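=== RUN LOG ===
request id: a7f3
mode: sequence -> structure
chains: 1
length: 306
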Amino acid sequence: MGENERPRGLDVSNWQGAIDWRRVAAQGLSFAYVKATEGTTFRDPYFAENASRAAEAGLAVGAYHFFRAKSVGEARAEAEFFLGQTADFRLTLPPALDVEIPPTGDPVAFREAVLAWLEYVSNRTLRPVVYSFPAFVVQYLGDPQFERYPLWIASWDRAPSEPLGAWKNWTFWQYTCSGIIDGITGRVCLDVHRGPLDLASEETPAPPPTDAPLISEASPASPPESPPLTPESEVEGRNEPGAAPHEETLPPDETSSLPHSEGNDTFAFRLLAAVRKILLFLFTRIFSPILRRTPNSHGDADARKE
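=== RESULT ===
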């Protein structure tokens, strides 16, 4: 299928505010992913409106969850919260899990937690899609167990290389987060599906036995060898809008914090950085010249006294 023939869509959250979905759909887009939940307590305030209006406008709609769990138990709680918040909506795309915050502890425990969320949701609805970006996929999502879940890759400055981590190819590609779409104020992330977008081919697995394990009992494979992510890279993550992520590093930022995340830690980091720049500007433009003139003024006063 040619590049221009692939189904195109977008993904949105409360960052975009109110959206005129009929104007959006009129521009030839086929699908939309809308943020539903984050962690175990946050529900996107625009989710209900976005999911309903996008479907009414004729788009295929899916919901995504922003992952914050650090353990299998937390992951299952997040999955249950997500399913509870999305159960009453007409969603035709598979659910998606946004995984972009690097683990602070054991990477094996982190992978088990991600798999727990995916398997919990997969056993109760359509098989989920995994959203992330190349550096994160290579470093943290290389376990072969991830391959059974379609990949939604964010790569904004080039076409994603293949294979990526556990995946031989991508299913969704987020190619920019600087898109301009009629009906949306500001910029938005745009995506393409590998195509064709055949919703009828998606499987709905039967519910598992109540005592069935939600993750494999086998130990996950070791993570692939790659340079560790720096704290600066962790903060930049997925931005909206922002510059493109690429193969070796996380995406550089052009605006604010992670668009999918409501976390205050990244926002605080950005705010402090901005204040620091302002203070540095004031010092170099105002206070520094005053300090340079001070010795001369004292000297002039002494000269007048003489």
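=== NOTES ===
The chain has two domains: 3-201, 263-306.
Strands lie at 8-12, 31-38, 42-43, 60-66, 96-98, 129-132, 151-154, 172-179, 188-193.
=== END ===
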